[in-house]
Specification:
Layout (H helix, E strand, L loop, with lengths): L1 H25 L5 E7 L18 H8 L2 E3 L2 E2 L5 H10 L13 E3 L3 E3 L10 H7 L3 E6 L20 E5 L14 E4 L2 E6 L8 H13 L8 E6 L23 H27 L5 E7 L30 H4 L3 E4 L8 E3 L3 E2 L3 H9 L13 H4 L10 E6 L12 E7 L2 E6 L6 E4 L15 H13 L18 H4 L2
Parallel strand pairs: 1-10, 1-11, 2-13, 3-14, 6-7, 6-10
Antiparallel strand pairs: 2-12, 4-5, 7-8, 8-9, 11-12, 15-16, 16-17, 17-18
Protein name: Arylsulfatase
InterPro entries: Alkaline_phosphatase_core_sf, Sulfatase, Sulfatase_CS, Sulfatase_N
Organism: Draconibacterium sediminis
Length: 475
């Protein structure tokens, strides 16, 4: 009898265990999220977006096996305001940050940090139970106030390089990478690595090796390439046989080595058994640059058919590559022309993580688009950008605006100047201004420029008229 009772108890325990396991198996597991951000990578600099010279096999394969966006836009035309849109889900004309620097006390140009009450993607996902890591370029802080750095804006593990204030303040060594705000953390030695992104990827490996296996992670890789201010790399051989000018060989090398790091990260996750449950997103913070001691974006046709480059609100300055891969969720080899941008990333990741979309965002979740379902698009999108006044005269205030309504694109540089109008279906290169033929659409654009915005300190509407170079005045 005792044996029968014992067997009965064991059977009940086994049944309960199986039922509990079944319940656990039925609950969707939150995916890991790997967000990959290039720095100044143009729309035409990947093979999967038409590049014919620079080799990017890893990203081309990611696009072949994932979803490629054709009409996706960065938050703005330079790094700080673009990244601010990405981090907060607030489009550029509502964002706190609208240029690499804002103007204060008459003509003192200073970096502007995100406000403390603006939730970042890192803060949102950490509250959702994610382990959060950030590696690379932050550029959304006051360099003299560590509370504004990535380590205090939602990231458990944050490695960032740092720049000092242009006028006064602490000066930092660009090769020093601070880990969680500690100055003597880790130093990048150029000759020990193929490039800075090679170094940063190894730091990412160290982070991934320490994650808890029972919790999802969010890793934001803010790469350096192909930004022009990485003037030297350790790999001297790649493309050396091409006979290109030094600046162009360096640019191509950084881009291909960036691609290599993407492959390394994906292989690492595969080896860890984490890749199958990881959502991978790749994009760029703005269009291609004309920097780096002689680089010309026309050499590799870096913006494809698009007009403009970094700091332009024409298509070439803000339309960027966007690739999404998610095994078993995103259909392989699909393209979408869904109109979308950086403000849509935060609400998308909120839905992926199963949390409420923060009220601050005016973005629209792309999750249905990723699953091949219908999703409402933006009736219009608009951008507002302030050039900084460090080393330039700005007779028009350095203030730039653009907007898109369906196939129509409006551009205005200086609020006293005329609005240019283009039909992107017929004229993706924005060469034929048809404003005179469509005054009603021009009015819609101007109404958007004036009404779909909010004031923010340091970035006055209309910009800052300046007939001198502020950098010279404050030397």
């Amino acid at each position: 009898m005792k044996r029968l009772i014992f067997l009965h108890v064991v059977a009940i325990l086994l049944l309960n265990a199986c039922q509990n396991q079944a319940k656990q198996d039925s609950v969707p597991q939150k995916p890991n999220i790997l967000f990959l951000l290039a720095d100044d990578l143009g729309y035409g600099e990947l093979g999967c977006y038409g590049q014919e010279v620079i080799q990017t096999p890893e990203l081309d394969k990611l696009a072949q096996n994932g979803l490629r966006f054709t009409d996706f836009y960065a938050g703005n035309a330079v790094c700080s305001p673009s990244r601010a849109v990405l981090m907060t889900g607030k489009s550029s004309s509502y964002n706190t940050v609208r240029g690499n620097s804002g103007v204060f006390n008459d003509d003192r140009w200073m970096r502007v940090a995100l406000k403390k009450d603006e939730m970042t993607i890192g803060e949102m996902l950490r509250e959702a139970g994610y382990q959060t890591g950030f590696i690379g370029k932050w550029h959304l802080d006051d360099p003299d106030d560590i509370t504004t750095w990535a380590c205090n804006r939602g990231f458990d593990y944050a490695v960032q390089e740092q720049w000092g204030s242009r006028f006064g303040g602490i000066q930092y060594d660009e090769q020093m990478h601070w880990i969680n705000g500690k100055q003597d953390s880790v130093y990048y030695h150029i000759n020990e690595w193929e490039c800075k992104d090679d170094f940063r990827t190894n730091l990412a490996f160290g982070y991934l090796d320490k994650i808890q296996k029972d919790k999802p992670f969010f890793l934001f890789m803010s790469f350096r390439a192909p930004h022009g201010h990485e003037y030297e790399i350790g790999n001297k051989e790649i493309y050396s046989e091409k006979g290109w000018p030094a600046a162009e060989r360096l640019h191509a090398a950084k881009t291909t080595l960036l691609d290599k790091q993407v492959g390394r990260l994906l292989n690492k996750l595969d080896e860890m058994g984490e890749l199958e449950n990881t959502l991978v997103i790749f994009t760029s913070d703005n269009g291609p640059h004309r920097e780096g001691r002689g680089h010309n974006p026309e050499f590799f046709n870096s913006n494809g058919e698009l007009r403009g480059i970094k700091r332009d609100l024409f298509e070439g300055g803000i339309r960027v590559p966007m690739i999404v891969w998610w095994k078993g969720k995103v259909t392989a080899g699909i393209n979408t022309n869904h109109l979308s941008g950086f403000q849509d990333i935060l609400p998308t990741l909120a839905e992926v993580a199963g949390v409420e979309i923060p009220a601050q965002t005016n973005g629209i979740s792309l999750l249905p688009v990723l699953f091949g379902e219908e999703q409402a698009s933006h009736e219009s999108m608009n951008w507002e950008f302030q050039l900084d006044g460090w080393s330039r005269t700005m007779p028009d205030g350095g203030f730039r605006q653009s907007a898109r309504i369906g196939e129509w694109k409006g551009v205005r540089y200086g609020i006293m100047n005329e609005t240019l109008l283009y039909n992107l279906n017929d004229d993706i290169s924005e060469t034929n201004n048809v404003a005179g033929d469509h005054p009603e659409i021009v009015k819609q654009m101007n109404d958007i420029f004036e009404d779909k915005r909010a004031e923010t300190q340091g970035f006055p509407y209309g910009g800052v008229v300046q007939d001198y170079k502020a950098k010279d005045r404050h030397q």
